[in-house]
Design a protein that fits this description.
The chain folds into two domains: about 200 residues, Glycogen Phosphorylase B (Rossmann fold), CATH 3.40.50; about 160 residues, Rossmann fold (3-Layer(aba) Sandwich), CATH 3.40.50.2000. Helix content is about 40%, strand content about 15%. It contains 19 helices and twelve strands. β1, α1 and β2 form a beta-alpha-beta unit.
Length: about 375
């Protein structure tokens, strides 16, 4: 089966959760002998490290000012930004030559550029339409854009021959939008690649530390402040909280952090964005992995990653969305409020709470297992 997939970021060096998911989908589809071609249409300001091939379909420099206009949303208005641009016709010409059996959209934002051709073009109208959703996007968007996002997302979900959701909750929403008799959405949760637990990298930090990993997605900062408070002074003496990823900028630039800058310097190690090697070393040496997720949709790759490392995991309950069965596993400690979260984290850091999860137990959270329903359904979408 030949699948042409479109998204709004490159995956050459996947860093955030969306990139990791798309890269894993591509890898698993190809491992199943599908011809999977992913085409990113994206801003080089937001993603300067695309591969040479990926940069061929990046948005032109002339359009970037409009794309990043603060009065618009980069993702929601991407198709409007590109309307009439020569890149669109080039993408369509390439798609016609590729002659896909199916066209897949990661997120709904690029669909309007292709909708007419997929419905009417003699070379493309036979291709099946697949929507690979990462969230119920309209639920997460700023209220002023919500109706517009909902209309776009709902149109794609309604028309798609196959819809893939990351959680049963999201699938329930999408199925409610679809016509009676349409095949139900399938659920393929987020996962991660199994870690090399036999490796022994050098410790990136001295002393005991709890680890938080997060992108610059604003809900990550919300979860941090709600879960840890202005100063994580509840940690046991000599231990620290290490923060890796783009969320560092959201935390350190906040007045709440700066107000107690000296004390936060004692309790918090702000590491910024780190490469895969450093992240693996942090996960290897962390005493506890924290999931201070208090809002959002879909499922979180960070949760699957934390479970597979077999360390004690301290999580706010929303972090287990889509992984609810993991609460019964050894070493998974779930809090319903910030006070409970802090108590669990302190007890895990002192060794009172431990983890005895096994590799066999956590294999279900690897990408091959999590994406299996999606890969299996690819063939049947043609029938």
């Amino acid at each position: 089966m030949k699948i042409a997939a479109f998204g709004h970021y490159p995956i050459h060096r996947p860093l955030h959760g969306g990139q990791r998911r798309v890269a894993a989908i591509a890898a698993q589809a190809r491992a199943a002998d599908h011809v999977f071609r992913y085409v990113p249409v994206y801003s080089t300001r937001g993603y300067p490290d695309g591969s040479p091939d990926e940069r061929k379909t990046a948005v032109s420099e002339a359009l970037l000012a409009r794309m990043h206009d603060p009065q618009r949303r980069e993702d929601l208005h991407l198709a409007q930004t590109l309307a009439g641009d020569p890149l669109v016709e080039r993408l369509l010409d390439d798609l016609r030559r590729f002659a896909p059996d199916a066209v897949q959209f990661e997120h709904p934002w690029l669909y309007p550029l292709f909708a007419e051709a997929l419905a009417c073009d003699p070379a493309l109208r036979g291709a099946k339409l697949i929507y690979s959703a990462h969230n119920v996007e309209a639920d997460l968007i700023d209220p002023r854009w919500r109706a517009e996002a909902l209309a776009l997302e709902r149109d794609l979900v309604t028309r798609a021959d196959l819809v893939i959701a990351v959680s049963t909750e999201d699938a329930r929403v999408f199925d409610g939008w679809r016509d009676y008799g349409k095949r139900p959405c399938i659920v393929a949760p987020n996962g991660c690649w199994p870690p090399d637990l036999s490796a022994a990298p050098a410790a990136p930090l001295e002393g005991a530390f709890a680890l938080v990993v997060g992108s610059a997605h604003p809900p990550n900062a919300t979860g941090y402040w709600e879960s840890f408070g202005e100063i994580p002074g509840f940690l046991s003496p000599g231990s620290r909280l290490a923060i890796a990823g783009g969320m560092n900028d959201l935390i350190t630039g906040d007045d709440r952090f700066q107000r107690y800058q000296r004390m936060n310097a004692e309790f918090v190690a702000t590491l910024g964005a780190v490469d895969e090697e450093v992240l693996s070393a942090l996960l290897h040496h962390a005493k506890v992995i924290c999931l201070p997720i208090t809002e959002g949709g879909g499922t979180n790759l960070k949760t699957a990653e934390a479970l597979m490392w077999r360390k004690p995991v301290v999580a706010m309950r929303p972090a287990l969305r889509g992984y609810e069965e993991a609460e019964a596993m050894s070493g998974v400690y779930v809090a319903d409020d910030p006070k409970q979260f802090r108590t669990l984290l302190r007890d895990a850091m002192t060794g009172t709470l431990v983890s005895r999860r096994t590799v066999a137990e956590t294999a279900r959270y690897g990408w091959p297992a999590q994406l299996a329903p999606m890969i299996t359904r690819y063939e049947s979408v043609l029938t």
